[in-house]
Amino acid sequence: MSYRPLVFVSGLTLGDYLLWNWSLNGNHEVVALVAGLTLPPLALATLWLLARAVARLLARGAGRQGARRSPAHRPARPQERRAPAPGRPAAEQPAARAAVTESSSRKLAA
What we know:
Number of strands: 0
Strand content: under 5%
Number of helices: 3
Helix content: over 70%
Oligomer: single chain
């Protein structure tokens, strides 16, 4: 994400405000009128870009916190050996399937 538009529009707004203030104090009516008419849209654009930048930062921070809490990023815990559930054959249990696969691969490797 680029902050260039925010910096650019903020600089224009500050410059316009300074020009408007200087022209009011120096009795430059035409310059004060032009600077005064362009100041509100520039101020609104600056506030809009600032709000977008803050929203993106908050969204990025929330995304990072969500990624920290997701189960995919947690370290793997060792699986506990459990007794087969009643009514299901032992071959359907995950631990039993792993043991069957492991033993059959040993036979192929030997």
